[in-house]
Design goal:
The protein is α/β, with parallel strands linked by helices. 33% of the residues lie in helices and 19% in strands. It has five helices and seven strands; from the N terminus they run αβαβββββαβαα. The chain has helices at residues 13-20, 28-35, 120-140, 155-165, 184-204, and strands spanning 24-27, 57-60, 64-68, 71-77, 86-93, 103-109, 144-147. It has a five-stranded mixed sheet with strand order 3-4-5-6-7, covered by helices on one side. It has a two-stranded parallel sheet with strand order 1-2. A hairpin with a 2-residue loop joins strand 3 (64-68) and strand 4. Helix 3 (120-140) packs antiparallel against helix 5. The chain starts with 12 loop residues before the first helix and ends with a helix. The model is unreliable at 169-173 (pLDDT under 50).
Length: 207
Amino acid sequence: MAITTADSHYGGQSLISKLYSPKIIMSNHEWNWLAAGADGFSSPRWGEAPARKVGVSIGVDDETTLTVGNNTFTFYLTPGHTPGTLSVMFKAVEKDDANDGATHKAILWGGTGLNYGPDVERIKAYTESATKMRRLALVENIDVFLSNHPKRDGSDKKLAEINKSAIAIDSSENAANNPFVVGKETVISAFDMLYHCTTAQMIKAGG
Protein backbone atom coordinates (compact mmCIF):
# COMPACT_ATOMS: atom_id res chain seq x y z
CA MET A 1 0.00 0.00 0.00
CA ALA A 2 1.60 3.24 -1.18
CA ILE A 3 0.78 6.44 0.70
CA THR A 4 1.67 9.51 -1.34
CA THR A 5 1.40 12.07 1.47
CA ALA A 6 1.16 11.77 5.23
CA ASP A 7 -0.92 14.87 5.86
CA SER A 8 -4.21 13.03 5.37
CA HIS A 9 -3.79 10.23 2.84
CA TYR A 10 -3.07 7.55 5.40
CA GLY A 11 -6.75 7.68 6.32
CA GLY A 12 -8.12 4.16 6.63
CA GLN A 13 -4.72 2.47 6.53
CA SER A 14 -5.11 1.09 10.05
CA LEU A 15 -8.25 -0.85 8.99
CA ILE A 16 -6.66 -2.05 5.74
CA SER A 17 -3.55 -3.13 7.65
CA LYS A 18 -5.65 -5.03 10.15
CA LEU A 19 -7.60 -6.85 7.44
CA TYR A 20 -4.88 -7.55 4.88
CA SER A 21 -1.47 -6.93 6.51
CA PRO A 22 0.06 -5.10 3.52
CA LYS A 23 3.50 -3.55 3.32
CA ILE A 24 3.22 0.23 3.69
CA ILE A 25 5.23 2.43 1.34
CA MET A 26 6.10 6.09 1.88
CA SER A 27 9.13 8.14 1.00
CA ASN A 28 11.86 8.18 3.64
CA HIS A 29 11.34 11.94 3.87
CA GLU A 30 7.66 11.43 4.59
CA TRP A 31 8.24 8.72 7.21
CA ASN A 32 10.57 11.11 9.03
CA TRP A 33 8.16 14.04 8.68
CA LEU A 34 5.28 11.98 10.05
CA ALA A 35 7.38 10.78 12.98
CA ALA A 36 8.26 14.41 13.76
CA GLY A 37 4.58 15.38 13.97
CA ALA A 38 3.74 16.22 10.33
CA ASP A 39 3.47 19.94 11.16
CA GLY A 40 0.41 19.18 13.28
CA PHE A 41 -1.67 17.61 10.49
CA SER A 42 -3.94 15.03 12.10
CA SER A 43 -7.60 14.16 12.47
CA PRO A 44 -9.55 11.47 14.32
CA ARG A 45 -11.32 10.80 11.00
CA TRP A 46 -8.11 9.45 9.47
CA GLY A 47 -7.61 6.78 12.08
CA GLU A 48 -4.24 5.72 13.43
CA ALA A 49 -1.19 7.00 11.56
CA PRO A 50 1.24 4.40 10.22
CA ALA A 51 4.47 3.86 12.11
CA ARG A 52 7.71 2.39 10.89
CA LYS A 53 7.88 -1.31 11.70
CA VAL A 54 10.49 -3.84 10.67
CA GLY A 55 9.12 -6.05 7.90
CA VAL A 56 6.07 -3.86 7.35
CA SER A 57 7.13 -0.33 6.42
CA ILE A 58 9.09 0.47 3.29
CA GLY A 59 10.90 3.75 2.73
CA VAL A 60 11.63 4.76 -0.84
CA ASP A 61 13.73 7.49 -2.42
CA ASP A 62 13.66 9.27 -5.75
CA GLU A 63 13.42 6.84 -8.69
CA THR A 64 13.06 3.76 -6.48
CA THR A 65 11.32 1.00 -8.45
CA LEU A 66 9.00 -1.77 -7.33
CA THR A 67 8.04 -4.60 -9.67
CA VAL A 68 4.72 -6.35 -9.10
CA GLY A 69 3.96 -9.06 -11.63
CA ASN A 70 4.72 -7.61 -15.05
CA ASN A 71 4.35 -3.99 -13.97
CA THR A 72 7.08 -1.75 -12.59
CA PHE A 73 6.16 1.21 -10.40
CA THR A 74 8.69 4.03 -10.28
CA PHE A 75 8.46 6.41 -7.33
CA TYR A 76 9.50 10.04 -7.61
CA LEU A 77 10.02 12.54 -4.84
CA THR A 78 7.83 15.55 -5.63
CA PRO A 79 7.95 17.76 -2.53
CA GLY A 80 5.71 20.76 -2.14
CA HIS A 81 2.36 19.59 -0.84
CA THR A 82 4.37 17.86 1.88
CA PRO A 83 8.16 17.57 2.25
CA GLY A 84 8.23 13.96 1.06
CA THR A 85 5.32 13.68 -1.37
CA LEU A 86 5.54 10.71 -3.73
CA SER A 87 4.35 10.58 -7.33
CA VAL A 88 4.24 7.27 -9.17
CA MET A 89 4.73 6.25 -12.81
CA PHE A 90 3.45 2.87 -13.99
CA LYS A 91 2.14 0.95 -16.97
CA ALA A 92 -1.59 1.06 -17.53
CA VAL A 93 -3.12 -1.70 -19.65
CA GLU A 94 -6.67 -1.25 -20.82
CA LYS A 95 -7.43 -4.90 -20.37
CA ASP A 96 -4.44 -7.23 -20.31
CA ASP A 97 -1.50 -8.22 -22.48
CA ALA A 98 -2.96 -11.66 -23.20
CA ASN A 99 -5.85 -9.94 -24.98
CA ASP A 100 -3.62 -7.46 -26.82
CA GLY A 101 -4.76 -4.65 -24.56
CA ALA A 102 -3.51 -1.16 -25.37
CA THR A 103 -0.63 -0.21 -23.09
CA HIS A 104 -0.11 3.33 -21.79
CA LYS A 105 2.08 5.10 -19.28
CA ALA A 106 0.39 6.74 -16.33
CA ILE A 107 1.55 9.21 -13.72
CA LEU A 108 -0.14 9.58 -10.35
CA TRP A 109 0.55 13.11 -9.09
CA GLY A 110 0.86 12.60 -5.38
CA GLY A 111 0.31 16.03 -3.86
CA THR A 112 -2.40 18.22 -5.31
CA GLY A 113 -3.36 21.00 -2.91
CA LEU A 114 -1.64 24.26 -1.99
CA ASN A 115 -2.62 24.10 1.65
CA TYR A 116 0.32 25.60 3.53
CA GLY A 117 0.02 29.37 3.18
CA PRO A 118 2.71 31.79 1.92
CA ASP A 119 5.67 29.48 2.52
CA VAL A 120 7.99 30.53 -0.30
CA GLU A 121 10.41 27.62 -0.03
CA ARG A 122 7.60 25.09 -0.04
CA ILE A 123 5.87 26.74 -2.99
CA LYS A 124 9.20 26.77 -4.81
CA ALA A 125 9.60 23.06 -4.14
CA TYR A 126 6.13 22.43 -5.59
CA THR A 127 7.02 24.44 -8.70
CA GLU A 128 10.23 22.49 -9.17
CA SER A 129 8.36 19.19 -8.73
CA ALA A 130 5.84 20.17 -11.42
CA THR A 131 8.72 21.00 -13.76
CA LYS A 132 10.36 17.66 -12.99
CA MET A 133 7.20 15.71 -13.77
CA ARG A 134 6.56 17.71 -16.94
CA ARG A 135 10.00 16.69 -18.14
CA LEU A 136 9.28 13.07 -17.24
CA ALA A 137 5.97 13.13 -19.13
CA LEU A 138 7.75 14.43 -22.20
CA VAL A 139 10.56 11.85 -22.10
CA GLU A 140 8.37 8.86 -21.15
CA ASN A 141 5.40 9.73 -23.39
CA ILE A 142 3.00 9.61 -20.46
CA ASP A 143 -0.60 9.81 -21.67
CA VAL A 144 -2.62 9.12 -18.50
CA PHE A 145 -2.74 11.73 -15.71
CA LEU A 146 -4.10 10.78 -12.30
CA SER A 147 -4.39 12.78 -9.10
CA ASN A 148 -4.59 11.48 -5.56
CA HIS A 149 -7.91 13.35 -5.43
CA PRO A 150 -10.35 11.71 -7.91
CA LYS A 151 -12.48 14.83 -8.24
CA ARG A 152 -9.46 16.93 -9.19
CA ASP A 153 -8.60 14.82 -12.24
CA GLY A 154 -12.19 13.84 -13.01
CA SER A 155 -11.64 10.13 -12.26
CA ASP A 156 -15.04 9.85 -10.61
CA LYS A 157 -16.77 11.14 -13.75
CA LYS A 158 -14.56 9.08 -16.07
CA LEU A 159 -15.43 5.88 -14.23
CA ALA A 160 -19.10 6.78 -14.38
CA GLU A 161 -18.76 7.47 -18.12
CA ILE A 162 -17.16 4.07 -18.73
CA ASN A 163 -19.80 2.25 -16.69
CA LYS A 164 -22.69 4.11 -18.28
CA SER A 165 -21.70 3.70 -21.91
CA ALA A 166 -20.03 0.29 -21.58
CA ILE A 167 -17.07 1.53 -23.59
CA ALA A 168 -15.05 -1.27 -25.15
CA ILE A 169 -11.48 -0.72 -23.93
CA ASP A 170 -9.92 -4.07 -24.73
CA SER A 171 -7.98 -3.16 -27.88
CA SER A 172 -5.73 -0.40 -29.14
CA GLU A 173 -8.26 0.61 -31.81
CA ASN A 174 -10.65 1.60 -29.01
CA ALA A 175 -8.01 3.42 -26.96
CA ALA A 176 -9.32 6.82 -28.03
CA ASN A 177 -12.63 6.00 -26.35
CA ASN A 178 -11.08 5.60 -22.92
CA PRO A 179 -11.55 8.88 -21.02
CA PHE A 180 -8.51 8.15 -18.85
CA VAL A 181 -6.22 8.26 -21.89
CA VAL A 182 -5.93 12.03 -22.26
CA GLY A 183 -2.76 12.11 -24.37
CA LYS A 184 0.75 13.35 -23.76
CA GLU A 185 -0.03 16.98 -24.59
CA THR A 186 -2.80 17.12 -21.99
CA VAL A 187 -0.53 15.58 -19.35
CA ILE A 188 2.16 18.15 -20.13
CA SER A 189 -0.47 20.92 -19.99
CA ALA A 190 -1.54 19.72 -16.54
CA PHE A 191 1.99 20.14 -15.22
CA ASP A 192 2.29 23.49 -17.00
CA MET A 193 -0.82 24.62 -15.12
CA LEU A 194 0.63 23.46 -11.79
CA TYR A 195 3.89 25.24 -12.59
CA HIS A 196 2.23 28.54 -13.51
CA CYS A 197 -0.21 28.49 -10.58
CA THR A 198 2.53 27.87 -8.04
CA THR A 199 4.84 30.40 -9.67
CA ALA A 200 2.07 33.00 -9.29
CA GLN A 201 1.64 31.99 -5.64
CA MET A 202 5.41 32.29 -5.09
CA ILE A 203 5.43 35.81 -6.56
CA LYS A 204 2.41 36.73 -4.44
CA ALA A 205 4.23 35.45 -1.34
CA GLY A 206 7.23 37.62 -2.15
CA GLY A 207 9.49 34.94 -3.58
